[in-house]
Amino acid sequence: MSLLSVHNLKKVYTTRFGGNKVEALKNINFSVEEGEYVAIMGESGSGKTTLLNILASVDKPTSGEVLLKNENIVSIKESELARFRREHLGFVFQDFNLLDTFSLEDNIYLPLVLANKKYPEMEEKLEGIAKTLGISDLMKKFPYEVSGGQKQRAAIARAMITNPDIILADEPTGALDSKSTGDLLKIFEKIHKSGQTILMVTHSVRAASNAGRVLFIKDGEIYHQIYKGNMSSDEMYRKISDTLTVLLAGGDLHE
Amino acid sequence: MNKSLYQKLAINNIKKNRNTFLPFTISNTTMIAMFFMLLSIRDQASMATFFGGNTMHTMLNLGVWICGLFSIGVIYYTNGFLMKRRKKELGLYSILGLEKKHIGKVLFWEIALVSAVSIIGGIFVGMLFSKLMYLVLLNLLQVSSNLVFSLSIKTVGTVVVIFGAIFAVTILYNNVRLMFLKPIELLRGSDEGEKEPKAKWIIAIMGFVCLGIGYYLALTTQNAIAAINIFFIAVLFVIAGTYFLFMSGSIVFLKLLKKNKNYYYHKTHFITVSGLMYRMKQNAIGLANICILSTAVLVVLSSTVSLYLGLDNVMRTFYPSDIMTDYVYEPEQDAIEGNNYIYDNQLITEVFQKQAELNHVTVTDAKGYYNLSIVGNIENNNFTEIDSELSSFEDIEVMTLEDFVNEGYIKADQITLQDNEALLYSRDKTVKNMENVNFLDSTYTFVEGPVSKEADNLSRDTYTTAIMVVKDLDNLKDIRDQVNAIEIANGGEAKESITYNYECNLTGELTDKMNYSNGLRDAINNAGIPHVATVSDIFTTRQEIVGLYGSLLFIGIFIGTMFLMTTVLIIYYKQISEGYDDRRRFTIMQNVGMSKQEVKTVIKNQVLTIFFLPILLAIVHIVFAFDIIRKMLALLNLTNVTLFVECTIGTIAVFFIIYAIVYILTARTYYKIVEMD
Questions:
Q1: Does residue A31 have a pLDDT over 60?
Q2: A residues 53-82 closer than 8 Å to B (CB)
């Protein structure tokens, strides 16, 4: 049974004064297995962000269902959503989304605090995660005192600390320089190896080539997918690049 | 680019930024309206001639100045806020290719439009309400007036010129500021991280110490006259304490909360505490200002309201009756001159009545009585001369039983007095329990009698300690001689004398009453009643005091309203601008699993604290200052504590309600801003 499965997902935006309807997602179907590392690629306007927002339960689809551990997140009540997000999902954003009024430590604690966890329990959890991510020494620092890569690592720690079923990452390397991107991808690989399910939306071929599977989305539909299998990251990189070229050219990829 | 484009842009901007432009326009309109009203009322008052008009004119003039200067400050502040808020927007314009002079033109049109609306609206509202306000003022001054209230073009002109100039300077200022800004600076938001404030223990402790000293001084002052000087010192300490506490005490307190991990890591505390810490750092001075100004307004308003409402009480302690006359009773002198004159109630009453008919008023509550005031100390039942230090003394009013009965303080059949017997009535216990009092060579024994409570009215001023009732005029003369003998024995002069008093109330028109009083002395002299000492009436003094207190109250309410409006405006703006800054933070928190309900709770906590902290501290200040203010008011003869309590509570309540309404509006707007996606 899949950890996450998406069936017939459709999202139609209506412009404010009626009339024009824009189909952001036409008919999306896919599933993610437990422990998988999936990247979603697509151009701007392809519907990636809409898809991610729906998976993150921030937005509601027009029709279709999203099952996370057999629970349809589309039908979760508004009042339950916050709790649901806290318990099952972890988020990593392009611009880190750390609160600059909190130290890194407090930023990471935030979801646990919202879940009413006791301090000693939180402290214990943080210790292990901070060590894995190599930010143990930075805990008392504030976001404006550390580098972008360090901020993103803190953001990952914040996403992981609740032991979420799945981590949703939105362009996690988008705001990082090349070296930090490399470090970060290594970290993603490391946590993936430890069993964490990751779903990442990205523009970056380099980031996507690290994933176990890449989904391509175009005009609101899943257009193609590539499994990494036994390929090396370099081979994967090339394959993704080729696919993107075809995608851009508008050709047909169904083999 | 053509002209109408700038105007269109300006109008568009105003519409888009109505969250900030609307309060700006409303506050400007209100201030212009108030200024207009004060100005036209002042000019009107300078034409009117009535009692207290002079005092009023001075007060109004002062009010006009305060109002004007205040307006400048507020416009400067709110404009600065507007500009800061829109830095990014202006930066975008310059990126889009508008030159600074073009942006300047847009800015010009914005302020020009807003100021035109404000000035026209302000004058319109001012015109609508100035007559009403004038009537309110006349009513406060208790002047019945059939004066015609006219608005002058001159007033309109003055307002247009003054505020036109203020806005022109504002536009100029904005453009000068624009010139010195680089587009990149305009674009850059205020997103840069800000350091967490440090806890400054010493300043926090100093704050508590200053506040403690101030409160201690206010609470322990016994002497009413010393109270004035001490009050001033206490106020300085409290002001310093307030600033220190807001600057540092608040942060120290929050840091302590943060240190307590079990408290801090709780879903609402966590965000509230850290949010407030930054809030307090940015707003400490502003909040301290609000606290001190609120305290000042509340103190001034509550004391002027109680002085004004307590006016009749105060006046009655000076003038128990509307018309008071007294005559020196000098039987010895008269005897030498051969006319043994005993004051005849009948004759004086006739004079008073005739005078009343002449002036179309009616005499009520007329009464005549003899009295003798003796001042001295009583030790071991011996009446001695007053000691030079005046630290404590007895002021005893001596009167005859006949007069006492006539005034209804005791019934004739309830008591008989022999020579050298006296009835003592006093609220003071030490005097009450005495059995007799010895003068130089006569002793008066006190007897008990069922004296009516009304006799309290006889304690004319706060100093009278006892009423002593003796058998007749001969006894009164005896006491006078005794006291004079004591004074002569001590090397002083015989200065005590018995007076005959005749007083009454009048009903009728004020002018008639005053005419009555003005002609009274002549009427008495013409009737051949001898030794007239003073003829006084309550009206003139009352009118002057009403004029003073009434205009004080009027100005107080006016300036108080204006201040309250400004305070809430400033807080509103602060909250709104923080709302924009907080928007991102709350979005993040919702993403990591904070529910809307929790966001609401946290926002409520934060806004509530920022709003009500200054007011709560102001109320604490007032509670501690209450006693010392009461003592100072007692110097002005306002001894009605209940009235002062009621006025204070009432003022605070009104202030609080208005404040709370603005709080609700602000919290709502703030929430909308934060929630906007």
A1: yes
A2: 56, 58, 78-79, 81-82
